[in-house]
């Protein structure tokens, strides 16, 4: 059978054979080697009161827990979130089919709007390399039949999955906005299918090093992210200057705050650095939904005095891409401080 794995070892090896000058050590790089705390469980929030419209006291308690976790952790997990286990399970099965396709087919057949990615093309030295592959799919492309080829069964499942994730993301974003004194629908007009997207991730087993990144340390350039992951583990986040290994919970979805919500909330909510560590013997799968605004949307702080200057999402994305191309890593919000 043709190998499904991308040539990660070959690409990674080339970074050793052809070394380049490593950029000056910055705080971003120094934190990569921070100690890892024991595995812990993220704040766990039951969304029943929001989904089923329980009484106001229960709704307020749930909302308070969401906002507290977003401020103190930047991450939390949710149960009773309204997305059925059957849908999640079906989406996982279809995801497996896609990634089990031979590498040559994934890389060349234009599958899912040519959205296949692997490794880190911009990496210039080993610590910038991600041992993973992914399909990075804009929501606007999910309905296009032409992009699925022999995987037509993926289309309907992904449409249902994307719709469910979108609804949940907007519910949570509304709660976070309301806590800051704004209408719950403040993001409805600026977050549309043209810039929101889904990323299907696979982290192949990595036998060469227990310290290999499945995904390099980073923050998310969106309002918020919802993650559906398997039970393999590997996700870590920065908490109190230490890496925290997140204990998988098969019943929960993970939610994390992105850069745009941190800027918009004037640092009330925290976009926290996180990474994925590869597993020596076992592959890992996850699916992420990213709530993003249109590129011309202005991201200004909701409170004054503002910590950040006003910028558009398009400007932010361009700056991130420029920094990654020039330095090999993302700088992010510090570029936009007043």
From TrEMBL:
<dbReference type="InterPro" id="IPR027443">
    <property type="entry name" value="IPNS-like_sf"/>
</dbReference>
<feature type="domain" description="Fe2OG dioxygenase">
    <location>
        <begin position="192"/>
        <end position="293"/>
    </location>
</feature>
<keyword id="KW-0223">Dioxygenase</keyword>
<dbReference type="InterPro" id="IPR044861">
    <property type="entry name" value="IPNS-like_FE2OG_OXY"/>
</dbReference>
<keyword id="KW-0479">Metal-binding</keyword>
<dbReference type="Pfam" id="PF14226">
    <property type="entry name" value="DIOX_N"/>
</dbReference>
<dbReference type="Pfam" id="PF03171">
    <property type="entry name" value="2OG-FeII_Oxy"/>
</dbReference>
<dbReference type="GO" id="GO:0046872">
    <property type="term" value="F:metal ion binding"/>
</dbReference>
<keyword id="KW-0408">Iron</keyword>
<protein>
    <recommendedName>
        <fullName>gibberellin 2beta-dioxygenase</fullName>
        <ecNumber>1.14.11.13</ecNumber>
    </recommendedName>
</protein>
<dbReference type="InterPro" id="IPR050231">
    <property type="entry name" value="Iron_ascorbate_oxido_reductase"/>
</dbReference>
<comment type="similarity">
    <text>Belongs to the iron/ascorbate-dependent oxidoreductase family. GA2OX subfamily.</text>
</comment>
<dbReference type="InterPro" id="IPR005123">
    <property type="entry name" value="Oxoglu/Fe-dep_dioxygenase_dom"/>
</dbReference>
<dbReference type="GO" id="GO:0045543">
    <property type="term" value="F:gibberellin 2-beta-dioxygenase activity"/>
</dbReference>
<dbReference type="GO" id="GO:0009685">
    <property type="term" value="P:gibberellin metabolic process"/>
</dbReference>
<dbReference type="InterPro" id="IPR026992">
    <property type="entry name" value="DIOX_N"/>
</dbReference>
<keyword id="KW-0560">Oxidoreductase</keyword>
């Amino acid at each position: 059978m043709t190998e499904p794995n991308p040539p990660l070892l070959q690409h990674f090896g080339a970074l050793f054979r052809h070394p380049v000058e490593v950029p000056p050590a910055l705080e971003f790089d120094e934190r990569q080697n921070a100690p890892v705390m024991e595995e812990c469980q993220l704040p766990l929030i039951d969304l029943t009161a929001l989904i089923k419209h329980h009484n106001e006291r229960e709704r307020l308690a749930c909302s308070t827990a969401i906002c507290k976790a977003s401020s103190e952790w930047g991450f939390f997990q949710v149960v009773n979130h309204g997305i059925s286990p059957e849908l999640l399970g079906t989406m996982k099965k279809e995801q497996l089919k896609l990634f089990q396709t031979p590498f040559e087919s994934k890389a060349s057949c234009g599958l899912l709007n040519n959205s296949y990615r692997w490794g880190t093309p911009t990496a210039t030295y080993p610590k910038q390399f991600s041992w993973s592959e992914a399909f990075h799919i804009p929501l606007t492309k999910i309905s296009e039949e032409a992009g699925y080829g022999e995987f037509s069964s993926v289309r309907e499942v992904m449409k249902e999955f994307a719709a469910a994730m979108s609804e949940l993301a907007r519910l949570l974003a509304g709660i976070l906005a309301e806590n800051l004194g704004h209408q719950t629908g403040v993001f409805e007009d600026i977050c549309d299918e043209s810039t929101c997207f889904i990323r299907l991730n696979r982290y192949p087993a990595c036998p060469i090093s227990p310290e290999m990144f499945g995904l390099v340390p980073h923050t998310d350039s969106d309002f918020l992210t919802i993650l559906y992951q398997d039970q393999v583990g590997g996700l870590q986040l920065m908490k109190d200057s230490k890496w925290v290994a997140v204990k998988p919970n098969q019943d929960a979805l993970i939610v994390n705050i992105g850069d745009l919500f941190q800027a918009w909330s004037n640092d009330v909510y925290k976009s926290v650095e996180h990474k994925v560590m590869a597993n020596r013997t076992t592959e890992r799968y996850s699916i992420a939904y990213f709530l993003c605004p249109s590129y011309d949307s202005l991201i200004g702080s909701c409170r004054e005095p503002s910590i950040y200057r006003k910028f558009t999402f398009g400007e932010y994305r361009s700056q991130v891409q420029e920094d990654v191309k020039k330095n090999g890593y993302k700088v992010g919000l510090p570029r936009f401080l007043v």
